[in-house]
Every structure is written in structure tokens, then in C-alpha cells.
């Protein structure tokens, strides 16, 4: 217990009077008890029988659940009650998932209900889910094994109870939509201890007789206990093994059973199952009339085309004598055309030969003219050769004269000399001359080796 939060601390409500004993206000005590209850008792499922059920204008539910020796008050607030899938009634056996708490203003112990279900529904639903998972793992519910319904069944079978209200709805729908299709009933109880076995036997009987093209397994709505016969594993396997397609129409639109998953098609209601398996007679008659009109128009058009073709063939039909005369005339025309074609071919060949002979004569070579042409070209070639040779000789003389003018010998003949050092290099600067060294002097008429006696560099030069 938290004294700081659960107990009042104002001076007027001091829990410690002058005597030193602890004094608690009622509200603090109830609040502390509620806190202890909520911490001690977690959410749990509690079963009992409904009594004193009241649905307030606010949407809250107030009721009690009891057994043979005790009862406890319950409250289910609107936020939780709106999700319940049924409304409890006086005397119903239910299970509630609730938290133990206290209504502090009156100090009454109560259950704050969060979820409600009919007694046994949880176990049944768990069994339903387990079986569904098992059969689904086996592939019994796969879409690949579902068979399409026949568009025009020869006979329709119904597996249900003779006393079921759903049977009357199914028969009324079939009579309205397809009165021409016979209906075969396979009676079996749809509720009770042996109902699942009887339903399975009827499904197997319909499969052995093979007297219907499609089978309806149906019953009206009810609780999960009422519909439990259709959650039988043997019945589901019999539906899946049926040689003809099976339509399941069990309960209302929100009800699902194992038979719905095992069937080839599930209908939301028994009436919906009857509508799925039966072709509508009015639509069939309308479609038949439409096809009859199309067939009549097609037949009339075919007769008209055949008559027109007959007239055309009659116009083409001639007597054998006239036909022979026409062929004889045609044969004469072909002979004349053949003779004319042969004559024209000969004339064309002769004209072509004359033309080719004329062209050959025009292009025939003339040796005398060709020889004259060759002589002329040879003379021109010889003249061109001599003129070219004369030009090259003249150019050669000019180059020789220019070379002679630029020759060093001409310079030496004018009185100049070329001086070379022992290495054969030309001496251009007096500084390169040293006393005692020998040099080679080249003159116009020869060369001489001289020794250097003295070097007198001169700064003034005549050239």
C-alpha cells in the first residue's frame, strides 16, 4: 500500500489523531483495496450463467455471472461491448475475460469484462483452427483442386435435414430459377450426436449413385455448437473426394465451417447455394430465343446465297455443240497467233543479225591506219626525247660554269693562298699561329710546308 498516493494528507483528514492510532477514510480504503485486487488478480477467463443482464442507454452492459454456489457482478463498457459478436441473454452460459476490481463509490467487488464468449466456444474454436490447419497442410483446400460448377446440370442433389428451414428456401429458389431441373434429396440430420456421420454417409451415397451433376450441402444459421457437425474431419474428406462438385451453404454469411473450405464453392447462405448451382430458366429461354433467331437468319441468308449461286451457274451453262464451236474458233485463233509469232521471230532475228554485222564492220580494226598512228607517235616521242636531252645538256653547262666561278682554285689564281695548320684546319686568325709551328700553304700552282719564324699581328688591314 502506498501511503503517499492512497491516503489523504490534508490537515482535516489527518489519519493520525492525538491518540496515535491510524484512521483511514472510506474512499482511501476502497481505493487501496481496488489497487491490491488489480495487482493481485491478472486478466483471466471466468465462466458462469448470466443473470440480471441490463444494457444501459450509454451502451455499457451490467450483469452478474453465477454458478451453483456463488455469483459476482460484472460490467462491460461500451468500448468493449461493441465488438462482441452476440448479446448475452438471461440464463446463457458464458465465459468472460475480466479483471477483478472494485467499484469504489459503493465498495462493491466486480469484474471489469474485456471479452465475452459462449461457454465452450473457445475450445471449439481452437479445435476448428487445429483441424483447418491440418487439412490445409494436406492440400485439401488448394484452389487447384476446386472444380467448376456445371453450367447446365441435369439433376441437383441436396444433403440436409427434412425439417430444416433451409431446405424450403433452397427448393423455392430452385423451383423459381430452374423448374425443369430435377432435384434429389439425401436426408440427414444437421445437428446432434450422430449428425456428422449421417451427413458423410449421404455425401458418399450421392457420389456412388452418380445421379446428380452437382451437390448442395446446407443448413440454416446457428451457434458454433449448432454448426459443429459441419466441422467434422470425415465429412470434409468425403466432400473433397466426391466425384461431382459440391457447394456448401452452411449458416449465414459470417459463419465458416470446415465443410466450406473442403467444398468446391462456398455460398454465403443456403439460398445463395441454390442460386449458384441452378441456371435461371428465364435467361435460358431468352438465350434460346436469341440463338433461334440467329439460326433462322443464318439459314435464310444461306438459302439466298445458294439461289444466287445457282442463277450464276445457270447463266454459265451452254450446250456441248456451242461449246465445241467456241473451242474450235479459239483453237484457230491460237494457230494464227502461233504462225504470226514464228514469222515475227524470224524477221526480228534477221534484223538483229544485220544490225550486229553493221556494228562489227564499223568497229573492225584498220592495220594501215593503226601503223600510221604508231609512226606518228614514235616521231613525236623521238622529238620530245631530243628536246629534253638538249635542255638537260644546257642546264649541265650552266651548272658547270657556276661551279667553275665559285671554285677555290679561281681564288688562288688571283694571288690568294690557303693556310692550314698541322691538323688540316683553315687558319683565319693570326693568333692561331705560333712560332716554331709548321703550317701548309696552298697556292694556285701547288702547296708548301713552312715554319713560323715570328708572328707580327697587324691591326690595320687592306681588305
Automatic annotation (TrEMBL):
Sorted UniProt keywords: Cytoplasm, Exonuclease, Hydrolase, Nuclease
Ranges where the OB-fold nucleic acid binding domain occurs: 25-117
Chief location of this protein within or outside the cell: cytoplasm
GO biological process, one term: DNA catabolic process
One Pfam family linked to the record: Exonuc_VII_L
Domain spans labelled Exonuclease VII large subunit C-terminal: 140-449
Catalytic activity: Exonucleolytic cleavage in either 5'- to 3'- or 3'- to 5'-direction to yield nucleoside 5'-phosphates
Domain of life: Bacteria
Enzyme Commission no: 3.1.11.6
GO cellular component labels: cytoplasm; exodeoxyribonuclease VII complex
Subcellular location: Cytoplasm
Molecular function terms from GO: exodeoxyribonuclease VII activity; nucleic acid binding
Enzyme class, first EC level, given as a word: hydrolase
Assembly and oligomerization: Heterooligomer composed of large and small subunits.
Family the entry assigns: Belongs to the XseA family.
Job description of the protein: Bidirectionally degrades single-stranded DNA into large acid-insoluble oligonucleotides, which are then degraded further into small acid-soluble oligonucleotides.
HAMAP family: Exonuc_7_L (MF_00378)
The protein's name: Exodeoxyribonuclease 7 large subunit
Gene that specifies this protein: xseA
Amino acid at each position: 500500500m502506498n501511503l503517499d498516493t492512497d491516503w489523504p494528507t490534508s490537515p482535516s483528514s489527518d489519519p493520525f489523531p492525538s491518540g496515535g492510532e491510524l484512521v483511514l477514510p472510506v474512499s482511501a480504503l476502497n481505493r487501496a483495496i481496488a489497487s491490491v485486487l488489480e495487482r493481485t488478480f491478472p486478466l483471466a477467463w471466468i465462466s458462469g450463467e448470466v443473470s440480471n443482464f441490463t444494457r444501459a442507454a450509454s451502451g455499457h452492459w451490467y450483469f452478474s455471472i453465477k454458478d451453483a454456489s456463488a455469483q459476482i457482478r460484472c460490467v462491460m463498457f461500451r468500448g468493449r461491448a461493441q465488438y462482441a459478436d452476440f448479446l448475452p441473454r438471461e440464463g446463457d452460459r458464458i465465459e468472460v475475460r475480466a479483471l477483478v476490481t472494485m467499484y469504489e463509490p459503493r465498495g462493491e467487488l466486480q469484474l471489469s469484462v474485456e471479452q465475452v464468449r459462449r461457454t465452450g466456444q473457445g475450445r471449439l474454436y481452437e479445435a476448428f483452427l487445429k483441424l483447418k490447419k491440418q487439412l490445409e497442410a494436406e492440400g485439401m483446400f488448394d484452389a487447384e483442386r476446386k472444380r467448376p460448377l456445371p453450367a447446365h446440370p441435369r439433376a441437383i442433389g441436396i444433403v440436409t435435414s427434412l425439417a430444416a428451414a433451409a431446405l424450403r428456401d433452397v427448393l423455392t429458389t430452385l423451383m423459381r430459377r430452374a423448374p425443369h431441373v430435377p432435384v434429389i434429396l439425401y436426408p440427414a440430420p444437421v445437428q446432434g450426436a450422430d449428425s456428422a456421420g449421417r451427413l458423410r454417409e449421404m455425401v458418399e451415397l450421392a457420389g456412388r449413385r452418380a445421379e446428380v451433376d452437382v451437390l448442395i450441402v446446407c443448413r440454416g444459421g446457428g451457434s458454433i455448437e449448432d454448426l459443429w457437425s459441419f466441422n467434422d474431419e470425415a465429412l470434409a474428406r468425403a466432400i473433397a473426394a466426391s466425384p461431382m462438385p459440391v457447394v456448401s451453404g452452411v449458416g449465414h454469411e459470417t459463419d465458416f465451417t470446415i465443410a466450406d473450405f473442403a467444398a468446391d464453392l462456398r455460398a454465403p447462405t443456403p439460398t445463395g447455394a441454390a442460386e449458384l448451382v441452378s441456371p435461371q430458366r428465364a435467361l435460358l429461354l431468352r438465350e434460346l430465343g436469341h440463338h433461334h433467331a440467329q439460326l433462322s437468319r443464318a439459314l435464310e441468308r444461306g438459302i439466298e446465297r445458294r439461289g444466287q449461286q445457282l442463277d450464276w451457274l445457270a447463266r454459265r451453262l451452254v450446250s456441248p455443240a456451242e461449246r465445241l464451236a467456241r473451242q474450235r474458233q479459239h483453237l484457230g485463233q491460237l494457230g494464227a497467233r502461233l504462225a504470226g509469232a514464228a514469222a515475227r521471230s524470224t524477221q526480228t532475228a534477221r534484223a538483229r543479225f544485220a544490225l550486229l554485222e553493221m556494228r562489227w564492220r564499223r568497229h573492225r580494226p584498220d592495220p594501215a591506219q593503226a601503223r600510221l598512228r604508231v609512226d606518228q607517235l614514235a616521231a613525236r616521242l623521238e622529238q620530245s626525247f631530243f628536246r629534253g636531252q638538249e635542255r638537260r645538256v644546257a642546264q649541265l653547262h650552266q651548272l658547270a660554269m657556276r661551279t667553275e666561278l665559285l671554285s677555290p682554285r679561281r681564288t688562288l689564281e688571283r694571288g690568294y693562298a690557303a693556310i692550314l695548320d698541322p691538323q688540316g684546319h683553315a687558319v683565319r686568325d693570326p693568333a692561331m699561329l705560333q712560332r716554331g709551328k709548321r703550317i701548309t700553304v696552298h697556292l694556285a700552282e701547288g702547296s708548301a710546308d713552312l715554319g713560323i719564324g715570328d708572328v707580327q699581328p697587324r691591326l690595320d688591314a687592306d681588305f
